[in-house]
Amino acid sequence: MKFIGEKAKNIAPLFQKVLARVLHRRVLHVILVVFALMVLVVIIRLFLLANTIIVEQTVDYEYENFSVKEEEDRIDVLLLGIRGESDPAGGLLADTMILMSFDKSTEKMSMVSIPRDLFVEFPDIQIDECSNLPEAIIPLPEDRKVKINAAYAVGRSCNPNGGLEMAKEVVQYVSGVHVDYAAVINFTGFKRLIEIFGGVEITLEQPFIERQQWQGEEQKDNKYWRYYTAEPTEGDANKKGGYWEFHVPAGTNVLDSESALYYIRSRFSSSDFDRARRQQQVINALKDKALSSGVLSNPKKVFDSLESIGRNVRTDMSISDMKMILSLMKQHQLVVPTQEVLQPGEGGLLESQIIDGAYVIVPTQGDWSAVRHHFQDILNEE
C-alpha cells in the first residue's frame, strides 16, 4: 500500500501538467477564435462602409497651362455642402466650399471659405458628352467662365465620378493649393451628423435673427422660432398680421439638426460671407464635440457614425486615408485653425460685378496670381 501511495504522489503532478497543457491549448484556441471573429467583423464593417459612403474614382479634368505642386508635409481637404440630388432647384450646386489645410511639420491648421459666386474659367471639357448640366449654366459659355459653385455639378454631369475632381481642379486653379482630398455632404447627411453628436453647441455674443428667408417654413414647436404679431419694420418680411423669425439668442445654445441647418443656411438678413463664418463655427464645434465625446478614439463609434451618414456623402478618400486623417485630428486636437472668409472689398483681392445680369466675384487684378499668393500667406503665416 505504501508503494501504491508513493506512485500516486508521482503521478499527480504529471496529471496536473497534462491538464494544464490541455486547458492552455483550449484557452489559446478560444482566444484565436475570438480574435478571428473580431477581424471578420472589422472586415465586414469596412466592406459595408465602402458600400455605404460613395467613393469617387479619379477623373481627368486638367487645365492645359496650369498645374500645382503637391506639398509633402501638408494635407489639403476640400469640403463641399450641397442641398442634394433630389432637389430640382440646383441641388448639386455647392452652398458651402471650405478648403481645410494642415501642415504636419509646423502643426498649423487653416480653414478658408471660398465664395460660391467666384467667376472662374473651368478646364476644357467635351461638353457634348455631358448631360443634365445645371440650368443656370446652359449652355456652357464659350469662354467656360462659370460660378465656382457649379464645379461639382458640371463634373458630375460629364462623368458620374467626376464631381469632386472638377471641384478640386477649379479650387486648385483659384488658390494655387494642391487639393489632396475632397468630400461632399448633402443636407440629409449634415442633419444625421448633428444627430449622431446629440446636437451642436455654439456660443454667440449677439443674438442671431433671420426674419426674411424662412417665411412659410417655421417650426412652431422649436424653441429657436418666434412669432411676432406686430407689423414688420422696414426691411423685414412683410407678412400681414405678424411673422415668424428664426432666432438664436446670445449665450451658449445647443442646436438640434434642423436648427443647425437653418443656422448655416441663413443669409438674407446677413450675407453669404457671414453665413460662411457660421459654417466654420459649426464645423469647429462638431470637431470639438467629436474629440471630447471620444468618438474618434472608438472605432465602433466611427463606423456607426459613417454608416449613419451613409450615401449622403461622396469622397475620394480611401478607408486608409480616412483613418490617417482621423489619427491626425486626435494627435493635434488642441491646434486652433486660422479662419478666413474670402470676400470682395475696397482695395482687396476680389471685387463684385454684374455680368450678363448675374452677380459675380472676380479677381481685382484680372487674374488669380494675387489670390494664390494670399493663400500661401495664410498657409505659411507665423
UniProtKB/TrEMBL annotation:
Instruction: State the superkingdom.
Output: Bacteria
Q: Which residues form the Cell envelope-related transcriptional attenuator domain?
A: 94-290
| Transmembrane segment boundaries | 27-48
Please give one Pfam family short name: LytR_cpsA_psr
Q: Does the keyword Lipid metabolism apply?
A: no
The entry's keywords:
Membrane, Transmembrane, Transmembrane helix
The UniProt similarity line reads:
Belongs to the LytR/CpsA/Psr (LCP) family.
Name of this protein: LytR family transcriptional regulator
